[in-house]
Amino acid sequence: MFKIPFLDIPPLQRAAGTVRLPGSKSISNRVLLLAGLSEGQTAVHDLLDSDDTRVMLASLRELGCQLEQREDGVLLVTGIGAQLKGSCAKLFLGNAGTAMRPLTAALALLAATQGGEFELSGVPRMHERPIGDLVDALRALGCQIECLGNEGYPPLRLSGPSALKLNEPVRVRGDVSSQFLTALLLALPLVSAQPVVVEVVGELISKPYVHITLELLARFGIQVQREGWQRFTIPAGSRYRSPGAVHVEGDASSASYFIALGALAAIEQPLRIEGVGSASLQGDVRFAEAASAMGARIEAGPNWLAVQRGAWPLKAIDLDCNHIPDAAMTLAVMALYADGPSTLRNIASWRVKETDRIAAMATELKKLGAQVEEGPDWLRVHPLRLWQSASIHTYDDHRVAMCFSLAAFHGLLGKELVGPRVTVRIEDPNCVAKTFPDYFETLFEVVSADPADVPVITIDGPTASGKGTLADEVAHELGYWILDSGALYRATGLAASRAGIDLDDAQAVAAVARGLDLHFRKGRATLAGEDVTEALRAEATGLMASQVAAHQPVRDALQQLQLDFRRAPGLVADGRDMGTAIFPDAGLKVFLTASAATRAERRHKQLISKGISASIEGLRADLEARDARDKSRSASPLKPAADALSLDNSAQTIEESRDLLLRWWAERGPFSVQR
Ligand SMILES: O=C(O)C1=C[C@@H](OP(=O)(O)O)[C@@H](O)[C@H](O)C1
Ligand SMILES: C=C(OP(=O)(O)O)C(=O)O
């Protein structure tokens, strides 16, 4: 997760590999509610773990469901069997429409029949998202619902008991959100001693989501009879029956970003997307048809898609997007790469989602330089040829953040679209946590850039100057990768000495370096599968590193390995020759020093905290000896790059050093002057 104020995405060139999608939000929250209302236990496989499902889980727990996470990741939900366990609760539902709307219906009916009082609230935007049509339908049935803020909007208070009138059809409007109908269909089996009829007033939007609802109800033993999209009957005596186990498909709306990515940038071979395919329950898989119409080459299996660039530039489209409201936002960004203006129609519901999405898309696309027109329920996007760097405001809308990441693809994508190479800044990237917390990590696994376009910050300096800590801090703030080049030398020294090789034998050690099976993941380092994080930090390993680093053949062997760390969105590399030898074109080079006394003191503290005793004088003497060796070695001696900025951090806290570096970095970037 990128919990940072912004994420700068450099120009991206290609996409390749395989993406495994997270679970579908729409299926996850429906399955959770159905399992929660059922009797007995349901094993939920591949559940989405995101903000929207967390609020649903917290609510179910509050309502008395038992939730148990099995070691294999499967969630066991023991439902309440349609019987309230407590008579009051206050539930916070964030910005999850799939939690707010269905829980409103379920708890209003439970309160009416069993008594109780429930308050449902969310984030400020949730309190601006309409729920009046659902409230009206439930009130007409006899439920007691109070809107605690503005009429027709959450927060809500649901109370009872109260008498229900079930012999007349329940009428609900379907033209603002399909979630109102979905909510009623999911909840009305609670009161289906007699057949219950639901009638939709007005044109139903987002119909494929109602299809998901009906299919999942069927899996929980409830066969709703449907007459077109206007009339639905829940048979008398319907009861939630757990199917025992449910598998959640990958999220088809989340797939849209990678389908688009394939269409834009999978040039040599298709990008494979696993988790949804032709057998999917979700209407948003039909985004693939829209992408094909724009020129993507798509193959589909039951549970996978393979997408490759076909037409280039993409072909403009004019499409009614009512059946794919969420995924269609992705089309608006694809339209920048088309051969003419594209028009997305019948998308009025965009205005009442996480933000006013028509306005948001128009505003942000224009920042990139695009010409955009909008109407009450449509958006027209003209192709973009002269791109400009833009800082994309994301309005706490996961989909704005995800679809604009695609705007980083251009420049070198074929001769037709050669333009300036620009940076796309995504503000508040963590808003993707609503449905796809690892979106950016997943994206960066499958994209590549021209290394020259990938920003690098180098931090060189003597031992114990705090390079590693500073690099970690800076990389974290920018969402960049880290190269701890010292660790490569340490691992080489460790591997060579474990293999019984004389560390003065330059050729033999270089051979070890070439075959190094070293990986860094989540702060841990593995060497040939063994966790060597601690071993690499040991003083003895540090001395070996210094010894093997003096051999030019070893440095050559490790050079390519180090260059390979230069991947989007950027790299912070720390070591001794990062700015001078490995990344001479780095955008910011820092030479970090601290007095020998300060460094010896820091090292001493570090050792003491690990329970290792050492003398400060001894450590200082070691440091000075190592400095002398590093400075005087003939291969890449330790010295600041000519264009490096010097930073003596003897009197600075780590936060001060970090903030200074970030300031230097910002001054060099495309957003140094506020647009
Ligand atoms: O029922 C669902 O799971 C959803 C229905 C759609 O909402 P609308 O019916 O309001 O368009 C969709 O946008 C939302 O993300 C999920
Ligand atoms: C509209 C969306 O969410 P919600 O389920 O909150 O309606 C969405 O995910 O795009």
UniProtKB/TrEMBL annotation:
Its main location: cytoplasm. PROSITE patterns: EPSP_SYNTHASE_1, EPSP_SYNTHASE_2. GO terms for molecular function: 3-phosphoshikimate 1-carboxyvinyltransferase activity; kinase activity. It is found in: Cytoplasm. Phosphoenolpyruvate binds at residues 25, 97, 129, 179, 357, 399, 434. Its EC number is 2.5.1.19, 2.7.4.25. It is an enzyme of class 2 (transferase). It catalyses: dCMP + ATP = dCDP + ADP; CMP + ATP = CDP + ADP; 3-phosphoshikimate + phosphoenolpyruvate = 5-O-(1-carboxyvinyl)-3-phosphoshikimate + phosphate. The active site is at 326 (proton acceptor). 3-phosphoshikimate binds at residues 25-26, 30, 177-179, 206, 326, 353. Keywords: Amino-acid biosynthesis, Aromatic amino acid biosynthesis, ATP-binding, Cytoplasm, Kinase, Nucleotide-binding, Transferase. It comes from the Bacteria. Pathway: Metabolic intermediate biosynthesis; chorismate biosynthesis; chorismate from D-erythrose 4-phosphate and phosphoenolpyruvate: step 6/7. ATP binds at residues 461-469. InterPro entries: Cytidylate_kin, Cytidylate_kinase_dom, Enolpyruvate_Tfrase_dom, Enolpyruvate_Tfrase_sf, EPSP_synthase, EPSP_synthase_CS, P-loop_NTPase, RNA3'P_cycl/enolpyr_Trfase_a/b. Catalyzes the transfer of the enolpyruvyl moiety of phosphoenolpyruvate (PEP) to the 5-hydroxyl of shikimate-3-phosphate (S3P) to produce enolpyruvyl shikimate-3-phosphate and inorganic phosphate. Monomer. Belongs to the cytidylate kinase family. Type 1 subfamily. This is Multifunctional fusion protein.
